[in-house]
Design a protein that fits this description.
Two copies of one chain form a homodimer.
Chain A: H1 7-17, E1 22-23, H2 26-29, E2 47-48, H3 53-66, E3 70-73, E4 92-95, E5 102-106, E6 111-115, H4 120-129, E7 132-133, H5 146-151, H6 159-162, H7 165-168, E8 169-175, E9 181-184, H8 197-201, E10 210-217, E11 219-220, E12 224-232, H9 235-249, E13 253-260, H10 261-270, E14 284-292, H11 296-312, E15 318-321, H12 325-336, E16 348-349, E17 352-354, H13 360-374, E18 379-385, E19 390-396, H14 403-407, H15 410-423, H16 439-445, H17 448-461
Parallel strand pairs in A: 2-4, 3-4
Antiparallel strand pairs in A: 1-2, 5-6, 6-10, 7-11, 8-9, 8-10, 12-14, 12-15, 13-14, 13-18, 16-19, 17-19, 18-19
Helix pairs in contact in A: 1-3, 9-11, 13-15
């Protein structure tokens, strides 16, 4: 069990970072204690903002010795409260926000080496400045930090072609709970030398150590880019069109996002500047993103062939192709606004699930029916990364219903939807992770041996149990 | 410590698989005891050939209870003796060769589910039969089995565009040392639910459990395919040409292999049917493989543009483009024959190393100088996956030298070459793994904390120490 830090201990932690970077007042610590959706609100006696790996090492050494719980935090954009200290406990928050230096960038070697506190958008920009692409892209990229992206194995909109954060990482630097530093900052594409420690820290949500630096892959910038928006009759047609697109475009298919009519209505109603790109109305929509490395004409040819085939086969009811970078951005902006646009519509019960791609239509039909049975006038606004099988199955409250009463049914509705997800051998957390929100549910659905193996790893890395306790796994 | 199995215990193991599948005679067990290069020869009282996951589970449960060492083996094609029982010990060999069933194939979902004992070429063929590609490709694909490919995180010739075996695996089924079965056979592209157990078993060389089944990704088949062969003046020019190709082709660049003149001479001299595709002679050669998902013309355009640019910039001295599938295969066959062609030239001291791609020319120059100082007439035949930074830095003995005396210097030459690899922050095992061959060297070059973390993982998964002992890590 972790302990409550004494004033003397708080003073010792403060000495490590300097008084200007140790926050204790309620007003100062407040921004570190609540996550974006407001579902969790933690408590802390101390927020530390170290400026170097050495300071983090000394903090963890002291924490281990004194049994003080440490909660690493990046941009505080996580959706499962993994970065939020526990309520009613005395976890010390370790903010990586001052660790925001790009250490090196090598366009020939196609790598960037950066502190874990770098903001994702700054990494994208640094890559762009040397004519390279860093593909990770997500709604919160202006404030999310790469340490958090790594710790949650972030996904986003470019997973289809490029993969999750895991696939972008060549090497890591991690401060272990004891304060020891593991220097795994390798820049190698191939290195089969022992157990895969890197992938163990990635996605561990700060429960095994603190990621302080990373070597990330860069990619050649695509020369051709096309974005199309297609109106579709059904999710089945969306799946058939995705199969077509995947076969026609191969790795050039860089996005295939599914959106319902309701999402278009929400975004055009609430998000300034968003307008419906088509005059006709359709039950479903696909945003199709194609990037080609050679000539721009390849992307044009691909998008034309795809839409022609889709229309000829009766899969596409209507379609538009963005004619400029501004139009391409507008279509993506509409997609990125799906979740924010639900806010003015009242409470929204959210799910971040995945199923095998070929099971999406069946899953959606079954989930819709079950949700409507439980809450007859609920408004399902399910959208997401169809090509990855990852659906943000969100449900807005019935019009004029009581927000609080609706949100009080969060766990009940989760149980309904997740049961159908599991029936299709899906995941209850496709890209957001486990944190506090899904911890007990994970323990309930996974085999005892899997939870046991995770516990053994946790114990092997953090025997004192100070690293982000009660996240991912409940503390024993 | 593990024990020597008694006749009664051997009888109990035999009961599990049936007498026809428990081999004890020297002639029967011999093929399981020596690896392809003949560097290691192990001993065993028993080779078990189970036919089901249940049998493997019972074998491991019994082994754990009786402290019997178990060595899992697939196609016995590994290069570091990870699959060979220890010499002078009584390790029981667990051959997966009867576990060779394809359990399911889903072309819409782009997955294949297979037993770990399936031969790699059979997986490639099954994918091909449903118009899909399974990209892992390596010289021994006709006998290597996917359990071994997973346990060593196999690389090969398609890593540049598609990645290592790790990137092809969505889910695993593993029998743990206790006999418990971890069913992680998920088919999901995105699943952020807890620690990454899958990637821990991949590359663990059978020291944490026995992989019995896997869900592997399939890919759309490319429609365009071009292979070019370019004569180059230097490794520097090869790097510049690779940079060009990478930028021009993006993910369509599916291979960029470097070969020295000496390798062309060896293959044309010793491998039936291989002939030099060019009349001119060049110090270095690149085999460039381009695959496009859309029309075949895209690949043609790309290869033409690349070679034109290469010639115009003085990077390419001469080049040919294969005009038929037969010619494409012939070029690849020459590349695949580099290693076998060294055999008739006498002893060969081999290295499977990687460095950051941009450091390849400097590494090669320095390694050549150091090797020639140590063994003046040695014939360096360094070739490999330039795009991955992975060079098979092989050295053939001097003409007319004594084979045994030359091979006796294996460790000495390794030390020379690996020191230069480490200077460039490279890997001493890019794709073959650690096994017995590089185990002590790994312990010597890695930080104590990294070896310690690996030991803790080993202990957490296999407290009895029965799983492939003394591989990767020396048993304590």
């Amino acid at each position: 069990m972790t302990t409550i830090p004494s004033p003397e201990l708080i003073a010792s932690f403060t000495d490590i970072v300097g008084p200007g970077h140790a926050l204790t007042g309620p007003a100062e610590t407040a921004p570190y204690l609540v996550e974006s959706r407001g579902l969790y609100r933690g408590t802390t006696p101390l927020v530390l903002r170290p400026g170097s790996v050495d300071e983090i090492s000394r903090i963890l050494e002291l924490a281990s010795r004194t049994q003080t719980a440490i909660v690493p935090q990046g941009g505080n954009t996580g959706h499962v409260a993994g970065q939020i200290p526990r309520e009613g406990k005395s976890d010390v928050v370790l903010s990586l926000e001052r660790m925001n230096r790009i250490r090196d960038i090598d366009p020939v070697g196609n790598v960037i080496v950066a502190d874990a506190g770098c903001i994702l958008a700054d990494i994208q920009k640094a890559a762009d400045d040397v004519d390279r692409l860093f593909p990770l892209s997500l709604g919160s990229e202006g404030s999310a930090r790469i340490g958090g992206n790594l710790s949650t194995n972030a996904g986003g909109t470019a997973v289809l072609a490029y993969g999750n954060m895991r696939q972008f990482c060549l090497g890591l630097e991690v401060v272990l709970p004891t304060g020891e530093v593991w220097d795994g900052l390798r820049r190698l594409k191939k290195d089969n030398t022992g157990y895969d420690l890197r992938d163990l820290f990635i996605g561990a949500e700060g429960t095994l150590g603190v990621i302080t630096g990373a070597v990330l892959k860069l990619f050649p910038k695509p020369r051709g880019h096309q974005v199309a928006f297609a109106g579709l009759a059904s999710v089945e047609d969306a799946l058939a069109l995705f199969d077509r697109a995947s076969s026609l475009c191969g790795p050039a298919l860089t996005g295939f996002e599914l959106m319902p009519r309701l999402g278009i209505e929400f975004t055009t109603r609430h998000i300034p500047g968003v307008r419906d790109p088509m005059e006709t109305s359709h039950p479903w929509y696909a945003l199709i993103d194609i990037s080609t490395s050679d000539a721009a004409e390849s992307a044009e040819r691909m998008v034309q062939s795809l839409l022609e085939a889709g229309i000829a086969e009766g899969l596409v009811e209507n379609a538009v192709i963005a004619q400029s970078e501004a139009q391409r951005k507008a279509l993506w902006h509409m997609r990125e606004s799906m979740s924010p646009a639900q806010k003015p519509e009242g409470g929204s019960i959210k799910h971040d699930v995945s199923v095998p791609v070929s099971s999406i239509p069946a899953f959606m039909a079954e989930a819709d029916a079950a949700v409507m049975t439980a809450i007859p006038d609920a408004r399902v606004c399910a959208f997401g990364h169809m090509g990855d099988g990852n659906i943000h199955y969100n449900i807005s409250q019935p019009v004029d219903a009581d927000r609080g009463a609706f949100l009080a049914r969060w766990r009940e509705v989760n149980a309904i939807v997740h049961a159908i997800v599991l029936k299709y051998n899906g995941s209850i957390s496709a890209e957001h992770g486990i944190g506090q929100l899904k911890r007990d549910e994970l323990a309930a659905i996974r085999s005892p041996i899997e939870i046991e193996l995770m516990r053994r790893i946790k114990h092997a890395f953090d025997p004192a149990g100070i690293m982000n306790p009660d996240k991912v796994l409940r503390q024993e």
